[in-house]
Design a protein that fits this description.
The chain is α+β, with helices and mostly antiparallel strands. The chain is built from 15 helices and 23 strands. A hairpin with a 6-residue loop joins strand 3 and strand 4. The two termini are about 35 Å apart.
């Protein structure tokens, strides 16, 4: 999910605990380069959709907002918000009235003026979508003038602006500009720095500069091409041959194939975890879930599969977020084979082969699954590995026709309510665990006014996660990008986002 955090002094205290710094992949935001030009980015995950309710991949959240702007977006450092659709925003002294101002010359890419009526309509779209329960703190959204939106809250919220910065909360034209929802998102019209020239779900996306863009940072690139390349070897070859300018998510096993001066690596706010179908099948048995978790040697995985590019997971919530804590009682990094065998003996497992699903486009997770297979075998658990494309995995997860699977989750804003809201909206990443705790923890984080209160909310969630073992974290893997020297100004922040508008190219 994409989100951020800002609400006066309270949030300033929370943000202060974010210790990871932004990572400049090449140059800095003010690096000099030529006006115009084009770049091609090799994606490891597909861009699937612009429709708010269907965004799932990191690429969806990264690039949808370049076309359909939210009111606000995370800044380059990833520790605050800056205006996007809105020209400015502010809370009153009580923290319960949030006002957005819209520039008079702000327009949609088709030339239609952008007004407060578009925001009110969009709010009702968001409210009826997956994030609806997360907007329950809002009591009213009003448009007193065409250039002003006033949002009234039932109580101060440290998370509302986070929600409003997500790509799933982009501002669309009132009444979808007379189109159906499906038509609108198929050929999206937004106020963002880029427009869509062409795109295919899960395929190639071509973005072109919005020449009428009004905002803090104007785009310079004429064209940005996003291409899904499933095979990390092919991404590497195309980069070295000059066909790609940027490779997202360089996999640990491919790091050695790049020159060091084109790589940037930084700790990320994300985890690779194993998720269990807790509603039916063998993993409805909590003891079997615990046996799997206890049998995994996370430290060995980090050193081998992830080539030292990360650390063994110590919490279910991603690290490097304000308020995140290591779950000391959980002790995920310690492998306990005897305890795993005891949990297995207490379960109903009778030696049948269990199927571990893995994304066929994520090479490192295929390697992780292959490394986990003999670890589980030592505990007496037999598994088969089933690679599938992301859409198939999601379909199976929603339908509950899977046993367990390995996935990556990366927060795209510095708040614990980023992963908590995603888990709430997806039924615990489709583990079908009772979602009441996700919403309770979300509300506890939302009401937190000090770092201590935030950490207490996080620890309660961590202990519940360990007790239920609805999922088990494996590793926190660094974000690694490869960037050609001709690309200037690209800054990847700790939440793995970057703005295309910062990027220029040299001749």
């Amino acid at each position: 999910m994409a989100s951020s955090l800002r609400i006066g002094a309270a949030s300033a205290a929370l943000i202060a605990v974010l210790v990871t710094a932004g990572c400049a992949a090449s140059g800095s935001p003010d690096s000099s380069g030529s006006e115009g030009g084009s770049i091609k980015i090799g994606l490891g995950q597909p861009f699937n959709t612009f429709d708010f309710d269907s965004l799932t991949s990191v690429a969806d959240y990264q690039f949808a907002k370049e076309v359909i702007e939210p009111l606000v977006v995370p800044n380059d450092a990833g520790d605050d918000l800056r205006p996007a659709f809105a020209e400015s925003f502010s809370y009153d002294e009580t923290g319960t009235v949030l006002t957005f101002e819209i520039a008079k010359d702000k327009t949609f890419s088709d030339g239609t003026p952008a007004t407060s009526a578009d925001v009110v309509f969009s709010y009702n779209v968001w409210k009826d979508g997956g994030a609806g329960p997360l907007l329950s703190v809002v009591t009213s959204v009003e448009a007193p003038t065409p250039q002003q939106v006033v949002v009234t809250l039932a109580q101060p919220s440290s998370s509302l602006l986070s929600v409003l910065s997500w790509a799933s909360e982009g501002v669309v034209k009132e009444d979808f500009g007379g189109l159906t929802r499906e038509e609108y998102f198929q050929d999206p019209i937004g106020t963002g720095p880029y427009t869509v020239d062409s795109w295919t779900p899960g395929g190639t996306v071509v973005l072109t500069k919005n020449d009428t863009y009004v905002g803090e940072v104007e785009p310079t690139l004429d064209t940005v091409t996003l291409e899904l390349i499933d095979d990390p070897n092919q991404r590497t070859l195309q980069f070295t041959s000059g066909d790609l300018d940027i490779v997202e998510a360089v996999t640990p096993e491919m790091v050695s194939q790049f020159d060091a001066d084109v790589l940037s690596s930084s700790p990320a706010a994300g985890n690779t975890s194993i998720y269990f179908n807790t509603a039916s099948g063998p993993f409805a048995d909590a003891n079997l879930r615990k046996a799997v978790s206890l049998a995994i040697d996370r430290e060995a995985l980090v050193e081998s599969v992830y080539a030292g590019q990360g650390e063994a997971a110590t919490s279910m919530l991603p690290p490097n977020l304000p308020g995140s804590v290591s779950c000391v009682p959980c002790d995920y990094p310690t492998r306990d084979l005897d305890a795993a065998k005891a949990a297995l003996a207490a379960s109903g497992y009778n030696g049948e082969t269990l199927t571990l699903g893995v994304n066929s486009t994520t090479g490192r997770n295929i390697l992780a699954a292959q490394a986990i297979q003999p670890m589980l075998a030592e505990a007496g658990i037999t598994i088969a590995i089933d690679p599938a494309d992301q859409s198939t995995m999601v379909d199976n997860a929603i339908a509950g026709t899977y046993e367990f699977s390995i996935h990556d989750y990366y927060a795209t804003s510095p708040t614990l309510n980023d992963p908590l809201s995603f888990d709430y909206q997806t039924d615990g990443f489709w583990t079908h665990i009772d979602g009441a705790q996700f919403l309770a923890s979300y509300n506890a984080v939302d009401l937190a006014r000090t770092p201590e209160e935030m950490e207490a909310a996080a620890l309660e969630f961590e202990e519940w996660s360990y007790d239920t073992m609805w999922a088990t974290p494996v590793a926190s893997v660094n974000s690694v990008f490869a960037v050609k020297p001709r690309v200037q100004g690209m800054v990847v922040n700790p939440i793995s986002l970057y703005s295309l508008s910062n990027i220029t190219v040299t001749n």
